[in-house]
Amino acid sequence: PRGVRSLAKPGMLAVSLISGSAYTLPSRARAPRMDAAVAKDAAFGASHTSFYTDAVAKDSYETLGEVLEAKCADPELRSVLGTMFDGCGTITEALRKELVTVAEKQESVFGDVQLGVDVLADDLMWDICKTEPLIKEGASEEEPEVREMHADGKFCVCWDPLDGSSIVDNNWAVGTILGIWGAETGILGATGRDQKASLVALYGPRTTVFVTLDDGVYEFTYGANGVDGWLCSRDRIQISQESKIFAPANMRAAQDLPNYAKLIDYWMTNKYTLRYSGGLVPDICQQFTKRQGVFANPTSESSPAKLRLAFEAAPFGLLVEKAGGKTSDGVSGASILDTKITGIDQRTPLCIGSASEVDRFNLVLGLGK
Q1: Is-above-0.70 flag for pTM?
Q2: Is the confidence at residue 3, as pLDDT, over 50?
Q3: How far apart are CA 247 and CA 273, in angstroms?
Q4: pLDDT tens digits for 245-291?
Q5: Helix axes 258-269, 355-364, angle to 10 degrees
Q6: How many CB atoms lie within 10 A of CB 108?
Q7: How would you class 322 by CB atoms within 10 Å of its CB: exposed for 0-12, middle for 13-18, buried for 19 or more?
Q8: Can you give the pLDDT at residue 5?
Q9: Residues 6 or more apart whose Cβ sits within 8 Å of residue 26
């Protein structure tokens, strides 16, 4: 894959990362000569494999308030979405100032090591939700319970306050994931398809939020063009059916699942572009900006899937499917949005992205037979 450098030299015995089979690297002296056109086409890093942005600057951009007014018919949901955007803006400012260190108090019941920024982001989300009387219940990935916020509220909000704790110290992109259910279904016993909306904030060089509205998925950028707030930077995002970008998670499972190893080999052999950071939010959000991609996270006996259905898989599932993509529950091959949430810490495998690649995942792994 592009960006991966081999330490082996010509003439040395090398081993395939996926299959484990050995092969001898050809000597440079025996390498066939290519004319300039062929060399350019075959070059890793050529523009056709780099997927640079094609976004063109506009004369003006709509604000969050303007878009919500036009594209979210439910005024109460508009209010909750506005509150969630406020939370993501507050977390953005906090991340720019907070050092990444281990939290003094470790309160995760899942045994995860909590960082100071984890606790900070979670506390901010709870504080924000307490200010919104329309929120009946809240649940955080940091704790295994659904808490009542306002008895007569209309919505239940489920969040992962800062996904990507294992890479945030590298200063890599991380994010906040939010799912919003109606009080009539709640979270437990509901499915991802019951969500009223979902949104994901990506904290990188810029902060962007992807959100489901009445007619599709929109991207908003925080503090752009000197504006103190959110501007709509992409509207009605569509994920194409075909893709040449892949993000293979849980590669340890390839040791137990020969068909997953076969699928990764297929992507590599067919010169797909590898775009994988180990952060769920950037690894899936690239599908909205590049308008293609596939993220795969299967499960195996020795390397079980760790994604949480309510906090991660369901909110992302709604976003991707509303943008024209497809999802697989990694077990039956059905949509992740049809999996019932029976426990707040319920784990699930997942494949998500361009429809043809999700179909390929199901086919190669033998799901849905």
Answers
A1: yes
A2: no
A3: 9
A4: 999 999 999 999 999 999 999 999 999 999 999 999 999 999 999 99
A5: 140
A6: 17
A7: buried
A8: 43
A9: 10
pLDDT tens-digit readout, 182-194: 999 999 999 999 9
Tokens 């004319």 locate to 35
The residues, ordered by sequence, that sit 6+ positions from 136 with a Cβ below 8 Å of its Cβ are 148, 149, 150, 151, 152, 153, 154, 155, 156, 183
- For residue 14, report the phi and psi dihedrals to the nearest 5 degrees: -115, 165
Residue 153 has a CB neighbour count (10 Å cut-off) of 20
Tokens of 321: 């499917």
Which residue is associated with the tokens 């999700």? 358
Instruction: For the beta carbon of residue 210, count every other beta carbon within 10 angstroms.
Output: 26
The tokens of 244 are what?
């040449």
Tokens of 206: 């810029």
Q: Name the amino acid, one letter, at 309.
A: L
In 3D space, the residue among 346, 318, 322, 313 whose CA is nearest the CA of residue 163 turns out to be 313
For residue 111, give every residue at least 6 positions away whose Cβ sits within 8 Å of its Cβ, in sequence order, or none.
Answer: none
pLDDT-based confidence at residue 144 (cuts at 50, 70, 90): confident
Distance CA 229, CA 85 (A): 9
